[in-house]
């Protein structure tokens, strides 16, 4: 496992962090995927963020979290996930505003009864601070989230794909249930302007959960 991360573009600390992440993920997905698959997903997840992340020390953590999501998606696609919980994927352009609010409400309201993911066609560097503050006003903390792309296994694993303004850039898989939410982009807007968008996102998330017959807390 060690040889995978001995790359010239990685510091010693990053190599160590990725090795630790690989061991953790290998233990989590033991019986479903081998070490080579886990390493490959972790390695490619790291590369997804390496070009745009502003704080290099966070890269291994972002890579581990994204690899975990992708491996869980692959397990669902390959019939190795027996949890049975519905998965909803929220997509927008930068994964920094609308889709993050939707994911925040979805996770808060559904709890463990459903799984929510999000992604962007052109992921930004950080979640919109105004969006973070707007969500904090209603008691939902999304400071731990980060903009990320989507991958084919993530889209394939989702039961419902909700798109918000990404147009032709959004992935299309035949037979997948798609919903398009026409929502204003909070980018560049004031807190006062973001609040109505936030409230409309909440309304739509609650309606979606009701349609999926998922009870809310």
TrEMBL record:
UniProt entry keywords in alphabetical sequence: Arsenical resistance
Source species of the chain: Nonomuraea deserti
One Gene Ontology biological process: response to arsenic-containing substance
Protein name (database record): Arsenate reductase ArsC
InterPro entries in UniProt: Phosphatase-like_N (IPR048716), Ptyr_pPase (IPR023485), Ptyr_pPase_sf (IPR036196)
UniProt entry tagged with the keyword Lipid metabolism: no
Organism domain of life: Bacteria
Gene3D superfamilies referenced in this protein's UniProt entry, alphabetically: 3.40.50.2300, Corynebacterium glutamicum thioredoxin-dependent arsenate reductase, N-terminal domain
UniProt-listed SMART domains: LMWPc
Record-annotated Phosphotyrosine protein phosphatase I domain positions: 86-211
Organism placement in taxonomy: Bacteria, Bacillati, Actinomycetota, Actinomycetes, Streptosporangiales
């Amino acid at each position: 496992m060690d040889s995978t991360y001995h790359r010239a573009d990685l510091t010693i600390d990053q190599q160590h962090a990725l090795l630790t992440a690989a061991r953790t993920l290998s233990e989590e997905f033991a019986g479903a995927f081998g070490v080579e698959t886990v390493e490959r997903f972790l390695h490619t997840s790291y590369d997804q963020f390496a070009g745009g992340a502003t704080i290099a020390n966070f890269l291994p953590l972002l890579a581990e979290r994204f690899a975990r999501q992708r491996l869980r998606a692959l397990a669902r696609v390959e019939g190795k996930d027996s949890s049975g919980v519905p998965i909803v994927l929220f997509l927008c352009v930068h994964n920094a505003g609308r889709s993050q609010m939707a994911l925040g409400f979805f996770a808060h309201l559904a709890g463990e009864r459903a799984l929510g993911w999000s992604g962007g066609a052109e992921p930004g560097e950080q979640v919109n601070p105004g969006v973070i503050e707007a969500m904090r006003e209603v008691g939902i903390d999304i400071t731990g989230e980060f903009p990320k792309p989507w991958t084919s296994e993530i889209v394939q694993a989702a039961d419902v794909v909700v798109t918000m303004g990404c147009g032709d850039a959004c992935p299309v898989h035949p037979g997948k249930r798609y919903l398009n939410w026409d929502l204003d982009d909070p980018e560049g807007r004031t807190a006062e302007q973001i609040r109505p968008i936030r409230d409309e996102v909440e309304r739509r998330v609650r309606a979606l959960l009701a349609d999926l017959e998922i009870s809310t807390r």
